Amino acid sequence: MTVARTICLGFLAVILLGTILLIMPFSTSSGTWNDPIVALFTSTSAVCVTGLAVVDTGTDFSFWGQFFIALLAQIGGLGYMTTTTFLILLIGRRFDLRQKVAIQQALDRPGMSGSSQIIRSIIATTLIFEITGILLLLPAFIPNYGWHQGIWLAIFHSISAWNNAGFSLFKDSLTSYQSSNLVVFTITGLIIFGGIGYQVILDIYLWLRDRILRKPHAIVFSLDFKVATSTTLILLVVGSIAFFFIEIRNPNTFGNFTFPNQLLLAWFQSVTTRTAGFNTIDIGTMTDAGLFITIAMMFIGASPGGTGGGIKTTTFRVLTSCTQAILQGKEEVLLYDRKIAISLILKAVGVVFGSLATVIAATILISLTDPKLDFIQILFEVVSAFATVGLSTGITSGVSTAAKLILIVTMYIGRVGILLLMSAMLGDPRPSRVHYPEENLLVG
Question: Which residues contact 106 (CB under 8 A, 6 or more apart)?
Answer without folding.
Answer: 7, 79, 80, 81, 82
